[in-house]
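Summary of Year 1 activities. Much of the first year was spent building the evaluation harness for sequence design. The harness presents a backbone, in tokenized form, and records the residue chosen at every position. We chose the following record to illustrate the format because it has been used consistently in internal testing since the harness was completed.
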């Protein structure tokens, strides 16, 4: 078990978090690998320091993982877009601000702090930063390097909209969170599910069939049609279908038949089945 080092900071809202990072765990590499830009920007201190909770296939916290079906499952059905990431963040409890263009960044009450979601159209992926008590911004570049005060041109960041952040500049969506951060750890039942997929990674398709049955039970309340599909594939799916499913799960991409796996909308209750199946909504 990794030993957590003593740290002077009391809350993830402390601006010293960036400075104390390398002294917060022994070895410090464990803390880097267990956290990404999202957990650093929005996570509470308990979530950040809980390296052991990352022992699963989806190692670092992702938007939405702590509050429901994880993004890696949802991306089997949904497109990887900016609205998708916004929705996942809001599901975790982040409050979106209606901040447009170059409007001045708001002053917040002491119990709230500001974070921002930036987006890359090329990567179809996000990056997160947090505003500190002195008005400057910090971020964690990736799951290898520690957090920093500086952008890629070695400049301090007073406004992320004007910082050099690689190609994460398509959009800037600001949110507020409690000053001490929020829970970002994946629910235990989902963490255990991802642990159980290890055999499937080595080509054990029979193990994957069993896991699909488990997954069906976990998603049936939210995605009943998808749950039925998983049960059918677990029982009767060809090996090629299982390999396709595994490939899309690992890559975070939609299944070829994703539209037909989403729940039917009441709007289509009285139209021909083949039409309803093809256009059923998210």
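For this record, the design step produced the sequence shown next.
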């Amino acid at each position: 078990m990794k030993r957590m080092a003593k740290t002077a900071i009391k809350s993830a809202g402390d601006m010293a978090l960036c400075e104390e990072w390398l002294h917060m765990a022994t070895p410090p590499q464990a803390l880097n690998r267990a956290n990404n830009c999202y957990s650093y920007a929005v996570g509470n201190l308990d979530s950040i320091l809980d390296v052991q909770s990352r022992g699963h296939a989806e190692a670092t916290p992702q938007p939405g993982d702590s509050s429901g079906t994880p993004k890696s499952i949802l991306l089997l059905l949904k497109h990887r877009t900016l609205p998708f990431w916004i929705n996942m963040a809001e599901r975790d409890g982040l409050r979106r601000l209606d901040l447009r263009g170059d409007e001045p960044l708001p002053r917040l009450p002491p119990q709230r702090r500001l974070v921002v979601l930036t987006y890359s159209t090329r990567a179809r992926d996000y990056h997160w930063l947090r505003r500190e008590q002195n008005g400057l911004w910090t971020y964690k570049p990736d799951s290898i390097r520690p957090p920093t005060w500086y952008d890629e041109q070695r400049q301090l960041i007073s406004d992320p909209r004007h910082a050099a952040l690689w190609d994460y500049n398509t959009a800037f969506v600001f949110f507020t969170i409690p000053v001490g951060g929020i829970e970002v750890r994946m629910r235990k039942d989902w963490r255990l599910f991802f642990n159980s997929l290890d055999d499937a990674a080595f080509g054990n398709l029979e193990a994957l069939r069993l896991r699909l049955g488990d997954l069906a039970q976990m998603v049936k309340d939210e995605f009943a049609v998808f749950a039925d599909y998983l049960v059918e594939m677990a029982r009767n799916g060809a090996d090629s279908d299982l390999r396709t499913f595994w490939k899309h799960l690992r890559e975070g991409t939609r299944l070829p038949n994703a539209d037909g796996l989403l729940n039917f909308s009441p709007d289509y209750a009285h139209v021909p089945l083949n039409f309803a199946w093809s256009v059923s909504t998210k």
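The chain has two domains: 3-178, 196-273. Quantitative recovery figures across the full test set are reported in Table 2.
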